[in-house]
Amino acid sequence: MWGRYGNAGGHWTGGDATVSIPLPDGRIAWIFSDSFLGAVNPDYSRPQDAPFLRNSMVIQNGSNLGPTLHGGTAAAPTSLIDTDLSPDDFYWVGDGTVEGNTLKVI
Prior knowledge:
- The protein is mainly beta.
- Helices cover 7% and strands 42% of the residues.
- The longest helix has 7 residues, at 2-8.
- The mean pLDDT is 92.
């Protein structure tokens, strides 16, 4: 499922430090630390200018993976959770839980 999703391009194409969190409505939140977005070449490599983010999220509903959630715009994506501290500061995923109807990510 993830191979097909990532290889299709146009959204998340790879990431690390993956955390999956079951949501109360049965969906699953997949949260990634470092993430690549964008196109995938015919040989399944990424172009040198592929967008790179510090964190992103994809919601799974049954066997369907939804759009990649990130900050910024499709043309100029940024990390889903960004910091105003400095360009050298960033957030990586630790773990997550749901309290009530709120997804909380460390």
